[in-house]
Amino acid sequence: MAVSMEREVPVLRDNHSLSLVPCGHITANNVSNWWPRVMTCVRDSHFVAVDLELSGLGPRDRLNAKQIDDRYEGVVSAAKSRAVLSIGLAFFNFCDNDVNETTINTNSEINCDTNSSERTINSDNLNECLSDSVENVNKFEALLDPQLMAKLENESNGCVDSSDKQWKISAQVFNALCLCEEEYVCEPETMRFLAGHGFDFNGQCLHGLSYHRGNDFLTEYEDLTTPSLRNLIAEIIRHKLPIVLHNGFIDLIFLYQNFYSDLPQDLQTFIADLVELFPAGIFDTKYIADFHDRLNRSYLEYLFYERQRFNIERSMKGQISIDITFPSLSHHISSDIEFKDLSTKILSESDLIVDICYDYANHGWCKLNHTCSRSHNIDHILDQKKNRSKRMKKLIKNMKKKSEELRIESTSGGDNSSIESVNTKHSKQGVHRAGYDAFMTGYCFAFYIAINAKTRPNPSKPLCVKSLGISHIVNNIYLTGKDQSLRINASSFAKTSANHKNKIQRIRAAK
Ligand SMILES: [Zn+2]
């Protein structure tokens, strides 16, 4: 690996990596700084997860029309009149477990920041683990699951050495603010929701990356290298990256119209275009959750935290699990990174009596939003039905005491100013970012691969659904209110659109 001349800043050294997820904030001011890094991600990743923040969706009856062709027409008209406010991109890369690099050169390839001896849970018993370092305390805080604890009680040596079963996965998360240069409709309900979740409308207007909808302008025709949203999507297409979305029907249509070209008239042509645009596959985590994992709830936040707990449980049992790491970033862009704690928290006894909101628990949405007096915290929701044993109660008490002591120690020294504090009742509802939604989507997909694939993805080769044995989940898009998915299959009678033919040729011909 080449040695960078730039100063390396260790952004993340925490073993329990999801407690500090970095997200690169891309604006018109810094896009040229980020561009080489993002291009490296496009080139070297196994897949990209995408999420869009939109200014509105148009009339709801059209979005949920019974006929899928009508639904398509409804979303097309929304994509031509509304705009993308921000785009979240999360790049994932399955790594070798024996990689020992600890920092990443921004001009070089992606590798995992790995120290397997520290990551493995291998103490002889829980008490020993509990009295260990801050990292272990954090880790075990997340492990206090009653069912799991009961299992551990039956095993003489509670923790399992599972280093070779822990798949190292490197993730890089970005959130780009977008500004459509054409007139577009902003729906009050959407604005209220986004403003209530801390969306920075001022920042979007002042520093958003400007773009126009529809076909390329002639001036853009041969320029595929200038940093722009359009060229970013073109690069993802050129490198044939698999794309992962959550409930992706609307996002795919908006992505096409806003950053690629004018949409085809009919759904069949759109599907034919998609087959060529993403030949390595389109994946939808809501489809996977509903049709394959058969989970009773499949909104993104629930899915992410539920999968995270399941992953911890598998790790403790020595089964294949995933371990996400975030490469360090060089100094000149580190000021444009924000952090968020996305780790699951097993709550203390006093939190268990919290009244949870069942609207939110069932649908991931509540009309009262921030004014709701009941808890929307997913950890409360996930904890609601679990009974706690005496041993659990004792452990929680010890853990609480220990983590409080350690918190005092760690905050008395060092600078933690960039770390978002998460100790409120609505802790999971902090600032809403398309980048973090993209990350959660990618996490769920990576976890699905870890527990279902026949083999481990080859670190140096593209993701191959066939050799992984996951062909049954590829190219199925979730359709709200339907018991069947939308299949993205090239049919013998549907032709691709003229706009697409023209553009894809230029993209594929680029160096
Ligand atoms: Zn509520």
From TrEMBL:
CC annotations in GO: Cajal body
Zinc finger (C3H1-type) boundaries: 356-379
Keyword field: Coiled coil, Metal-binding, Zinc, Zinc-finger
Regions annotated as coiled coil: 382-409
Residue ranges annotated for the C3H1-type domain, each copy included: 356-379
Any Pfam family: CAF1
Highest taxon of source: Eukaryota
GO molecular function: 3'-5'-RNA exonuclease activity; snRNA binding; zinc ion binding
Any one GO BP annotation for this protein: snRNA 3'-end processing
Family: Belongs to the CAF1 family.
Full protein name: C3H1-type domain-containing protein
Taxonomic source organism: Medioppia subpectinata
